[in-house]
Amino acid sequence: MSDPDLPSPLDPVIHAEARLRVMTTLAALQPGDQISFPRLQELLGMTAGNLSTHNRKLEDAGYITVTKTIEGRSPATYLALTDTGRAAFGTYRKALAVLLGG
Amino acid sequence: MNANTQPDADPAFDPAEALRVLEEQDAKVGAQFGNPDRKMYLAWGVAYLLGYLPLALSRGADPIVDIPIGVALGIFSVCIGLGIVAAVILGVRATRGMRGESSRRGMLYGFSWWFSFMCIAGLSIQLGKADIDPEITGIIINGASMALVAALLMAGGVIWLDVSQFVIGAAIALITLVALVVGLPAYWWIMCLGAGGLLLLAALFPKPLRRILPGSLERQGVSR
User: Fold this and answer.
1) Which of A28, A60, A97 sits opposite B222 (nearest CB)?
2) Residues of A in contact with B26 (CB under 8 A)
3) Is the CB of A25 inside 8 Å of chain B's CB atoms?
4) Under CATH, which number does the domain A17-97 receive?
5) Is A33's CB within 8 Å of B221's CB?
6) Pairing outcome for strands B98-100 and A74-81
7) How does pLDDT run along chain B (224 residues), one tens digit per residue?
8) Which of B90, B108, B134, B194 has the fewest CB atoms in 10 Å of its CB?
9) Any idea of the CA torsion for A98, A101, B2, B8, to the nearest 10 degrees?
């Protein structure tokens, strides 16, 4: 376990299992694509409430965009990574590799 | 205590565990997102192999099996029909719950198949009216269709910058050319083993294919 007094090189916004899963899934989308909330939920196996909470944290950090729209008559929510989010995820991945690879 | 105002990083979340989670999720979404090219090759490889086989077996001066040309062409049509159903399902599933550039691109690409093959249907109507040997009708319609398949596969390679798909399209064009030049009855065997075999190999051995030819640019920077 790492020393809690040392600043972790891992971005705290991403370094939690649920948010890491969200970021990994969104990073697999093509730039310019968005995924619907229910589809994301299905891929993550999380409850809607839990997923919303984590999404808000990622949105507050500017890592993801949450677009609310109307499809037919029902509201729909679409999510995507921002450029900042994509860059942050790349940095996180590299930091993780450095940390574990020595 | 940590006076950090940033979201609570899980202190118990071990980096090694994080890497495992990341790779697991990556593999899971990698299998579901993106171009379902391998499954398409598999569906069409099987459709061609099974579709052309009765024609290949029953044609020529000394046929292996006795199947009337109408029945053999009918079996071929059924196989192609099933291939189309599989392709539509795969295409729709690939962009399920998504919107944006990829789904638009996929939808327009799908339409380009429908619109161009409607002309083949028109060609069949006219050839059906004419008093021509059904096997000659078959080779004309089939040759035109395979030329279109090749062109659309190459176009797909251009759209997704997927060299593998482009090369597979070009290979289908060459196989069709050879089959047309050689002519009947070998035509059916060349298409059966050539086109069907090629697509099955592409579906079953994607790694050697990817090693020789660069794949699509998708997921660049995600996979290592």
Assistant:
1) A28
2) 24, 28
3) yes
4) 1.10.10.10
5) no
6) unpaired
7) 444 445 565 667 888 999 999 999 999 888 888 678 889 999 999 999 999 999 999 998 888 899 999 999 999 999 999 999 999 999 888 888 999 998 899 899 999 999 999 999 999 999 999 999 999 999 999 999 999 999 999 999 999 888 999 999 999 999 999 999 999 999 999 999 999 999 999 999 887 777 777 665 444 433 33
8) B108
9) 80
Question: Residue type for B77, please?
Answer: S
Residue A25's DSSP bridge partners are none
Q: From CA A45, how far away is CA A47, in angstroms rounded? A: 7
The answer to whether A33 touches B98, Cβ cutoff 8 Å, is yes
To the nearest whole Å, the CA of A9 is away from the closest chain B CA by 10
Other CB atoms within 10 Å distance of the CB of residue B134: 14
Nearest by CB to residue A33, choosing from B2, B13, B98, is B98
**Token pair 């339409």 is at which residue?**
B111
> Would you kindly state where each structural domain of chain B is located, as residue ranges?
36-209
Q: Is the pTM of this model over 0.95?
A: no
Cβ–Cβ < 8 Å for B199, B48: yes
Nearest residue of chain B to residue A11 (CA atoms):
B9
C-alpha span between B116 and B145 (Å, rounded): 9
CB A13 within 8 A of CB B10: no
The answer for A 42-61 residues in CB contact with B (under 8 A) is 42-44, 57, 60-61
Q: What is the rounded distance in angstroms from the CA atom of residue A61 to the CA atom of residue A84?
A: 9
Inter-chain residue contact B13 with A17, CB threshold 8 Å: yes
